[in-house]
Backbone:
């Protein structure tokens, strides 16, 4: 049996999405910027797809949604544009973010520091969430931008972005949120939260890879990251990825159409898996309160079991999981998110992320429960760091108690 539980890294493209994309590879394949019919016949389909995106996130006609290649591009665009538009002009010289952002934010911020920008990396609390009052305390009259993720890619913890956005607006500071792990998983309403910029990617909600978007509130100005053409109103040059746009539109409509029902079903499977693992495997810990997590995510640590070794054993059983962000999955250092929330260095090497999707079945959950324990038992038996005197099975559930 094969079970895929790495949906925070990427998702299967939904069959309905593939079907809707297919004609735009070999039938309606014209360049949308061409004046002949081969190009212009794609226009209504592109418009329909973009309308679906607007509807899904509740953007209005005054806002702008620009298609990009992925959220990494969108994140880079916002940070580097703020640098060009405000910081290089001497107006501001400070950006605020968190210690647990995606590498596309953290790496870009490190680059900005090399250009002379002051960057503050905010700590998170014991549940892995930055608190609004902490954000407020670090904003100064030199702050150009605050960038805080909507939901964490490793823990699934949902951040208080509405409160943070309000603080930023009161202070006259731009607010950006990386919503990659939120869109299609939990309700995302840009009129309610009111970010200035929001990044997301299609492949996180059963759309195709290679296409994402940047939401821009009130269509405010940003220096383009790419120059060379008038595509996307001159905001993002390059021939449009028509099949990708069509697929993204269909995928986001499917993901949000019955979202509350889908969330409930996924959460029930997630909770059953989490309860079982905590009950049958002693000395295990999950990170973050369930009611503040995206409904599909578990970050579980198993004392005495190296994360990479656990992945190897799970892979032998046909189970796909991860030790955290896919962009850092080949890094054998301790999990930075777990270190940020106060885990000791040994425990920070043990985190396993299990992320479900709407396609995860009850049979797959049963299979994972059985073989997850087998993998832990084998690895603990050969571990030199795990105590041979085992605690009593069925110990208490410990959420975020990692010291």
Residues:
């Amino acid at each position: 049996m094969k079970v895929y539980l790495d949906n925070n890294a990427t998702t299967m493209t939904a069959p309905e999405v593939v079907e809707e994309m297919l004609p735009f590879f070999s039938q309606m394949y014209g360049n949308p910027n061409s004046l002949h019919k081969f190009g212009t016949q794609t226009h209504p389909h592109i418009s329909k797809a973009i309308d679906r995106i607007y509807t899904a996130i509740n953007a209005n006609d005054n806002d702008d949604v620009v298609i990009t290649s992925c959220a990494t591009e969108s994140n880079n665009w916002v940070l580097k544009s703020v640098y060009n538009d405000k910081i290089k002009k001497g107006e501001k010289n400070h950006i605020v973010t968190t210690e647990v952002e995606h590498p596309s934010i953290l790496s870009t911020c490190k680059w900005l520091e090399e250009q002379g920008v002051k960057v503050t990396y905010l700590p998170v609390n014991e549940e892995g969430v930055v608190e609004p009052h902490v954000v407020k305390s670090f904003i100064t009259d030199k702050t150009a931008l605050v960038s805080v993720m909507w939901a964490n890619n490793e823990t699934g913890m949902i951040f208080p972005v509405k409160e943070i956005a309000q603080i930023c607006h009161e202070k006259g500071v731009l607010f950006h949120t990386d919503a990659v792990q939120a869109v299609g998983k939990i309700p995302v309403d840009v009129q309610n939260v009111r970010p200035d910029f929001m990044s997301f990617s299609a492949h996180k909600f059963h759309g195709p890879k290679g296409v994402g978007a940047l939401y821009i509130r009130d269509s405010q100005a940003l220096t383009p990251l790419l120059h060379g053409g008038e595509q996307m109103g001159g905001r993002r040059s390059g021939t449009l990825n028509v099949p990708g746009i069509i697929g993204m539109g269909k995928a986001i409509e499917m993901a949000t159409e019955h979202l509350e029902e889908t969330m409930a079903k996924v959460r029930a499977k997630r909770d059953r898996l989490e309860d079982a693992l905590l009950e049958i495997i002693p000395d295990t810990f999950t990170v973050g309160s369930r009611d503040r997590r995206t409904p599909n995510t578990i970050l579980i640590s198993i004392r005495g079991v190296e994360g990479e070794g656990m992945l190897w054993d799970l892979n032998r059983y046909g189970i796909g999981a991860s030790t955290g962000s896919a962009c850092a999955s080949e890094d054998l250092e301790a999990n930075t998110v777990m270190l940020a929330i106060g885990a000791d260095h040994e425990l920070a090497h043990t985190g396993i992320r299990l992320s479900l999707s709407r396609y995860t079945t009850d049979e797959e959950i049963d299979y994972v429960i059985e073989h997850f324990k087998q993998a832990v038992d084998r690895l603990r038996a050969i571990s030199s760091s795990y105590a041979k005197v085992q605690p009593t099975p069925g110990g208490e559930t410990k959420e975020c108690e990692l010291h």
Observations:
- Residues 259-280 form the longest helix (22 residues).
